[in-house]
């Protein structure tokens, strides 16, 4: 069996190091939903749960809007990183301005809808409709903070500011719990208080993260002077497919809610809202995996690193699926106690519907990990047809079409089974696209993802070297020079390429390996021949170190000190450094 490369181990460690922070954000949102549901069902009544259920399609829209901007900006970030620093800064500023404008407009529209009662006549009673309108107004106040907060969370993750994102998430959770009690129990404000509590917590979440950009320590700076307004269209073009599943899920919610009300009644909607609110905590794991994969895909494709793209997919589809299988099993085993958090009367029909929800819905999660990750990959790799078809099938067509047949026959169980079968359909779609692109059945992960040839170079045009100690550093120069000569590079440039890598890798081993207590550091080196250029990439997981800053700070009178760094900056055509996701990444163009 082939042993995983050092680069694979580095990516795997990074994947699962970042995962808890991405999960935490989603868990906080899910936990807030559970707290809202518990206060709604116990302090206000069942009708309030219907208001939460009716808001679900709008919730999908808001996250779709946020996801479009997050994914589009991250893909542009990956495209320009190490190539156009000014464009990276512009992406950040344009993304924040776009999210602010669209979210404020959305809030205004929803308040008008609630005040004019435009959404009446959807099968609900007058009491349920009034509760929904009040809840809508309370939620609308926090929508700008929700959307802009998601953007800041994504950019802070890229800057490895996990402590701040954690603090913001925990502050959001604590605030929502306290404000739910104050605005629902202490000061009975009904469903308006329920929505307002969420809004206050979202503004606190946004404020904690935004404060970092006033400290002067951030790599990215907001500036109107850096704004390239044409990027708004580029962000939306790249991001729409990432948000498509959320957009179509909004319509799926409308269809499913209508079927439940018609075939089962409000009791079915209350059951589905209860199981979904708690399941959302556990859905944070696959959605967290997708968030991490998106960052790694965008950076790997931006660096034209074909192997890393495949490695990220392997990590998600092997280790990620195994993890989520264990989670699904626990949910099935604890279906009854989970149901009793919401409903305690075992003779009530809503009780039995909710129990079955916890027993069946988790079974769709393992296949969903694969589907969601492939949709994310298709978006990053600009496989346009797959990036549209897969989210539409997963988010709307599969569940909606199956529900039309199964809900009338099997009631709520029909909806749960439809979600499971939907995962099978999505897997068949992925395989079908692989066969279309490769002209044969997939035999391995490389075949299954069918990475476009325009990304990166073939194996023969690159060399990968892993350095773990100073002895291995000494062999780097020889390997790189031999590679360059095999590709027709002149002797002078071949020699300087080997010298530059040996100097920079040696610097990491000699200094970076010793500056923290972590063991088993390694330096991942990649040399690529593309066009007439030799591209050198050095990646390590040591403490942040920017050699360009060291070169600028050196005393010009001392020509001997750090002569190696001086030499590399003199002979290279271009050098770009970034600390991405806690990794030092140095790109040298010779």
Overview of the molecule:
This protein is of the alpha+beta class. The protein has two domains: 442 residues, no CATH class; 131 residues, 2-Layer Sandwich (Heat Shock Protein 90), CATH 3.30.565. The protein has 20 helices and five strands. Strands 1-2-3-5-4 form a five-stranded antiparallel beta sheet, covered by helices on one side. Helix 1 runs antiparallel to helix 2 and helix 9 runs antiparallel to helix 10.
Task: Please give a handful of descriptors for the protein shown.
590 residues, 5 strands, alpha+beta, 5-stranded antiparallel β-sheet, Heat Shock Protein 90, 2 domains, 72% helix, 20 helices
The level of helicity is over 70%
Q: What structural class do the secondary elements suggest?
A: alpha+beta
Strand order of the largest sheet: 1-2-3-5-4
The whole-number mean of residue pLDDT values reads 82
Write the element-wise H/E pattern from the N-terminal end onward: HHHHHHHHHHHHHHHHEHHEEHHEE
**Uncertain residue segments:** none
- Strand runs, count: 5
Total number of domains: 2
Sum up the overall morphology in one term.
globular
In angstroms, what is the radius of gyration? 26 Å
- Helical stretch count? 20
User: What is the end-to-end distance?
Assistant: 37 Å
Sheet-strand content, in percent, reads: 5-15%
Q: Report the major sheet.
A: 5 strands, antiparallel
Brief summary of the model shown:
With 590 residues, this protein is α+β, with helices and mostly antiparallel strands.
Give the secondary structure arrangement, pairings included.
Blueprint: H1 6-44, H2 46-80, H3 85-116, H4 126-140, H5 143-158, H6 162-186, H7 190-210, H8 231-263, H9 266-302, H10 306-333, H11 335-339, H12 349-360, H13 365-380, H14 384-410, H15 412-438, H16 445-449, E1 462-467, H17 470-486, H18 491-511, E2 523-530, E3 533-540, H19 547-553, H20 563-571, E4 574-580, E5 583-589
Helix pairs in contact: 1-2, 1-6, 1-7, 1-9, 1-10, 2-3, 2-4, 2-5, 2-8, 2-9, 3-4, 3-5, 4-7, 5-7, 6-7, 8-13, 8-14, 9-10, 9-12, 9-13, 10-13, 12-15, 13-14, 13-15, 14-15, 17-18, 18-20
